[in-house]
Amino acid sequence: MMSVEEAIVGRQCTREFQNDKPVPQETIERILKIAGRTPSGSNIQPWKVWVATGAARDAITEACHKRHMAGDPSGREFKYYPVDWREPYINRRRENGWGLYGLLGIEKADKEAMKIQHGRNFLLFDAPVGLFFTIDRSLETGSWLDIGMFIQSVMLAARGEGLATCPQAAFCHFHDTVTKLLGVPDDQMLLCGMSLGYPLPGSRVNGYRTTRVETSEFTTFVDKPATQM
Q1: CATH code reported for the domain at 10-80+120-209
Q2: Class of residue 30 by CB neighbours under 10 A (exposed 0-12, middle 13-18, buried 19+)
Q3: Span 173-184, pLDDT tens digits
């Protein structure tokens, strides 16, 4: 049985899946049932999940990939990244991007190769299942935090089933296409997509691992008040 540490530390963004190995629906349901135990403020459980397989999955990937490769205007309904990048965040982002492209042999000046690789997001990296997470538009920031925890729970529960995942905010660029093809009502907003499936054995790109800063860089232990009341 996998330990909690193994589940968390061993999780990674998988970018190549076995496209000929389907995930049984009962397995997906078990993963979502486990993730459903995620805590939420006042237990309102604000998450909605749309599971795309078969023809629905293919329609979404084909339409989104086509728009990406055509350079169609796109845009999220919310800001995910900073408007003005600064340290240390910009360097972490660059390290991640160039580390991945370097592994794949993509040069910094090769914009077309970068576009093609980024387009793999919209093909779900060949995963047979696409999960799409939405939130009721009337809910506030706290519920976004709750859904973030829920998404993490889904990824860890998938690990317990021998499956891999890749969370993908990229789909929010084409939220109108995704929500239309899934039949998502207008009162729901797309927050994230996710590839789900079995990792491709021997994949070079799946060997890519991101770094993490030391605990001391983000942790402050306080045993005395900083100021007196």
Answers
A1: 3.40.109.10
A2: middle
A3: 999 999 999 999
